[in-house]
Amino acid sequence: MFDRNSFGSSLRALTGGAARRLALAAAVSLALIGCSHVAGTAQQFAPGGATAPAATASAPASVAPVTSYADVVARVAPAVVTVRSELRTRAPQQMPFADDPFFRQFFGDRAPREDQTPRREEGVGSGVIVSADGLVLTNYHVIDGAQQIKVELTDKRVLEARVIGADKPSDLAVLKIDATGLPVLPLGDSDRVRVGDVVLAIGNPLDIGQTVTSGIVSAKGRTTGLGDGSFADFIQTDAPINRGNSGGALVNTNGELVGINSQIVGSETGGSIGIGFAIPSNMAKGVMDQLLKSGTVRRGQLGVIVQPVTSDIAQSLDLKEVRGVIVSSVQPGSAADSAGLKQGDVITALNGTAVNDNNDLRNRIASTQPGTDVALTVLRDGREQQLRARLGEYKPQTAANDRADAEGGDTNGGASRGKLGVAVEPVTPDVARQLQLKPGEQGVVVAQVDPAGPAADAGLSQGDVIEQANRQPVRTQSDLASAVQRAGTRPVLLLVNHRGTTVFVTVRPRA
Asked: Are domains 300-393 and 398-507 of this chain identical in fold?
């Protein structure tokens, strides 16, 4: 499965559903190419078109295979560091009413006292030094939620780090350590990377120490199907990558950073099976530049939901080629709506460059600043049209995502980790059967609980069903979000079905 959290950091358990499996079309054999130039021809052309004998007549030289990348590693390895993060959490209360005087009059001192001593959890990942004065590029998930971050250099120094900026949608973060004269890994142009290029992965897998592995670029423009709203445009590689490599370097044979290692498809034991993913260096640079400038990342938004044009869709629309993406819906009042895009339009190009798939369009729009005018080439009723749209600004809460964000986003109005510390989902018939709910019982099921949040303190756990909030029925995430918003800073009274037992629980939203 795709394992982002355990891959780079043990701060959080993996959330969300199981990631989709990838099918390999063919086995890829590894070829290490040594030179890009071959000896010239045996004769030269003189001025005037006459031929002249070559200065030396010899058979074409053979290309010698590369037997070592030691020189490249020696240059780049000192700029790859270990990132250690620490988080202190408390175990959820199993008896939230143990200290309530009303209940203690019945139970006396027999009510168990729970140990609420904070627990220390540590995560290990990797990072890349990108400036001599101490800027370090790593993954968002390596430092997410950390209360203390330390960076270990290859010269054995351990330095405190602070977060300059972090961007969850791209899974990138920029750290700063107080040091000068540090080794730097130069950023390469990931757009020039080709499938088949040799790459080296450097990081600290499984916390065994800095390790270098080699492979090739297996594919470009990959998505991993995590479905968490992230912007994915991964470089896929078969260079072995394991837990702890998150945030580490993927470099080319010129010693340039072409990717930040981020995810893997792991075996049942979580180890590498030769399918790893790195964030392209060009995307990383764009995000880093914005984080350094303003602390946030602004992205353009068109306001459409699109899907790939398949052979069947192309045939039904009488398209001559299978290309572009088809618009399945247009958000009212969006840039797309203002530009005149309609449901059923096929977008074939953006600013004159062909659109390959929906992820390609999404990433290119997102990498463009809000307020920018873009040109869209559209097929409508068999005729090509040119439309211009002025992009709006992407906001996570306006993204089309009906599922509650288990990582703390605001798609349900703050009822996830931001306010109560829970993520909830609707009670579907399948969920009702799994939880053995009685006929007619409705509500929202708790999918995730922040162990350091107020809901955990109140005793809520995964699988609990919230039936009411402040005496009002709860049927959707929006119902719960509205109740939390109306409550302000006052405690929210929840009616909770906990494994067949219905109890009232009060949760005080955090600011």
From this structure: yes
Amino acid 111: pLDDT = 53
Token output for 340: 């005149």
Give, for 110, the enclosing helix (H) or strand (E).
none
Q: Does domain 74-177 have CATH number 2.60.120.10?
A: no
Digit-coded pLDDT (tens) for 369-389: 999 999 999 999 889 999 999
CA distance 50 to 59: 22
Q: What pLDDT was estimated at residue 104?
A: 53
Q: Which of 9, 85, 141, 238 is catalytic?
A: 141
The pair of three-digit structure tokens given for residue 231, joined into one six-digit string: 């912007």
How do the domains of the chain map onto residue ranges? 74-177, 186-281, 300-393, 398-507
CATH class in words for 300-393: mainly beta
DSSP of 67-87, one letter per residue? ---HHHHHHHGGGEEEEEEEE
Partners of 308 in beta bridges: 325
Residue of 290, 234, 255 whose CA lies nearest to 79: 255
- Asked if 87 and 123 count as a contact pair (C-beta separation under 8 A), the reply is yes
- Taking all residues of the chain, what is their mean pLDDT, rounded to a whole number? 79
Residue of 218, 230, 246, 334 with catalytic role: 246
Of 144, 167, 171, 464, catalytic: 171
Gap between the Cα atoms of 179 and 403, Å rounded:
43
Query: How far apart are the C-alpha atoms of 291 and 336, rounded to whole Å?
Result: 28
148 bridge partner residues: 86
Residues 239 and 199 sit within 8 Å (Cβ to Cβ): yes
Q: Which residue has the tokens 């072995």?
A: 240
Q: Judge whether 246 counts as a catalytic residue.
A: yes
Tell me which architecture the domain covering 398-507 has in CATH: Roll (2.30)
- Is residue 498 among the annotated active site residues? no
Write the CA distances from 273 to 20, 245, 308, integer angstroms: 15, 14, 29
Q: What is the pLDDT of residues 3-16, one digit of tens each?
A: 454 444 433 332 33
| Full-model pTM | 0.63
Please report, for residues 177, 248, 323, 416, the alpha-carbon distance to residue 125 in angstroms, rounded to integers and kept in the order given.
16, 8, 40, 26
Q: What number of H helices and E strands is found in the chain? A: 11, 28
Residue 77, CA atoms < 13 Å, CB-side half-sphere: 15
Please provide residue 149's backbone torsions phi and psi, each rounded to the nearest 5 degrees: -130, 135
- Domain 186-281 is in which class? mainly beta
- Check residues 99 and 40 and name the one with the higher pLDDT: 99
